[in-house]
């Protein structure tokens, strides 16, 4: 599901919702990027974090942001050109990636998984596992269970938005482990509403991990 109609206002909306520069910087801290690394920003939207990551890896590294939304990618390319950023952008969807196996050190999925139906979450995470090198890391920022009573009420109401319900039920780490990532660790929280996880692609290949067969009963 793309949210193309929001693209022209997306950055302003993020700032209004408290998802501005400080939020992007916290993701950067958890990612702990090194000069020369190859990075994928999956479902990059307007590419705000993609541009920060490109600065962090420097000219010896490479950062690619992709998104299935042509308007999102159009804005991302325009903003990168305006800032003289080295970030590159492509039209693509996480469940079918146009990248080689084991070709990235780190991937980010920020605020993307809760937009995807369960089967696309599963196939998308397997695709990310395919393109990460062994020992590579995946950072996920998304909705989760919450300790705040007020937020729990809001989340309960929002859980009627089909693709988000499993995130509110705390199932994202389960999908990550099913896709072969281990360990999966919580690295931080953002304003009691979002969790930042780090999921590692084991040194022994993730490609052999099969999705569990569906129960027939
Ligand atoms: C809430 S925005 C998040 C954008 C950006 N990652 C951020 O942190 O601001 C969700 C993004 O996921 C993208 N998206 C939707 N379906 C997708 C898919 N199948 N694969 C990759 N991205 C997808 C949407 O087009 C949208 O840009």
UniProtKB/TrEMBL annotation:
Q: Which UniProt keywords apply?
A: Methyltransferase, Transferase
UniProt key word Transferase: yes
Membrane-traversing stretches: none
Q: Which residues form the Methyltransferase domain?
A: 39-136
Name the chain's protein: Methyltransferase domain-containing protein
Q: Does the keyword Methyltransferase apply?
A: yes
Pfam families recorded for this chain? Methyltransf_25
Q: Which Gene3D superfamilies match?
A: Vaccinia Virus protein VP39
The Gene Ontology terms for molecular function here are: methyltransferase activity
Q: What superkingdom does the record give?
A: Bacteria
Query: Which InterPro entries is this protein grouped with?
Result: Methyltransf_25, Methyltransf_Superfamily, SAM-dependent_MTases_sf
Q: Which GO terms are recorded in the biological process aspect for this UniProt protein? A: methylation
Signal sequence: where?
Answer: none
The record lists the organism as Methylocystis hirsuta
């Amino acid at each position: 599901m793309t949210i193309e109609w929001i693209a022209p206002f997306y950055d302003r909306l993020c700032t209004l919702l408290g998802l501005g520069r400080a939020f992007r910087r916290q993701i950067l801290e958890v990612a702990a990027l090194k000069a020369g690394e190859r990075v994928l920003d999956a479902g990059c939207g307007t590419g705000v974090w993609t541009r920060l990551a490109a600065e962090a890896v420097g000219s010896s590294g490479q950062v690619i942001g992709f998104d299935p939304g042509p308007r999102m990618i159009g804005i991302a390319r325009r903003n990168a050109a305006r800032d003289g950023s080295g970030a590159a952008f492509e039209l693509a969807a996480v469940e079918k990636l146009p990248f080689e196996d084991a070709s990235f050190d780190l991937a980010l999925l920020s605020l993307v998984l809760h937009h995807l139906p369960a089967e696309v979450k599963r196939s998308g995470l397997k695709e990310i596992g395919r393109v990460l090198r062994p020992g590579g890391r995946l950072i996920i920022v998304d909705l989760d269970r919450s300790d705040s009573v007020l937020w729990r009420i809001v989340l309960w109401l929002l859980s009627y938005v089909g693709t988000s319900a499993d995130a509110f039920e705390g199932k994202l780490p389960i999908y990550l482990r099913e896709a072969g990532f281990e360990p999966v660790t919580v690295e931080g929280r953002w304003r009691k509403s979002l969790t930042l996880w780090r999921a590692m692609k084991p040194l022994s290949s993730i490609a052999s991990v099969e999705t569990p067969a569906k129960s027939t009963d």
